[in-house]
Amino acid sequence: MSDVARAAGVHQATASRALNPSTSDLISTATVRRVQAAAEELGYTPNTAARSLRTNQSYTVGVLLPDLTNPLFPPIVRGIEEVLTEQGYTALLANTDNDEKREAAQFAALLGRQVDGFILATGLRDHPLVERAQAEGRQLVLVNRGTDVPRFPVVSGDDASGIGAAVDHLVALGHRKLAHLAGPHRMSTGVIRLRGFRSAVGRHGLAAADTTVAECSGYTVAAGEAAMRAVLDSAPEVTAVLAGNDLIAVGALHVLREHGLSCPEDVSLIGFNDMRFVDELSPPLTTVRVPHAELGREAARLLLRRLDEPELVTSVVLPTELVVRESTAPPRVG
Question: What is the 8-class DSSP label of residue 265?
Answer without folding.
Answer: T
